[in-house]
Amino acid sequence: MNTIPDLVEPVWRKSSYSDGGANNCVEIADSFPGAVPVRDSKNPTGGALLFPAAAWSAFITTVKGDAWTGERSSRR
User: What pLDDT shows up at residue 66?
Assistant: First the structure.
């Protein structure tokens, strides 16, 4: 059985690449073994998405690397 972590009081942080004063980025919360909660900084009470840590790590590696060009796929 999977359990959902308590996201009521997590410590949220923004990327060091974002403008610390602006609310135009995503925030993540650490301290959740095996999972990475992600929320919109513009709407902090609007809920969070919960990603498996391995999936989040693969996403970050791809975005930081050369594998992602930033172009949209022509598939729809």
Answer: 66
Contact predicate 39/12, CB 8 Å: yes
Cα dihedral sign for 59, 60, 62, 63? Answer: positive
Q: Where are the domains of the chain?
A: 12-64
Give the distance, in angstroms, between the CA of residue 14 and the centroid of all CA atoms in the same chain. 9
pTM: 0.69
DSSP-derived 3-state class of residue 58: helix
User: Which alpha helices (DSSP H) does the chain contain, by range?
Assistant: 53-64
The answer to whether the CB of 52 falls within 8 A of the CB of 35 is yes
Bigger pLDDT: 1 or 8?
8
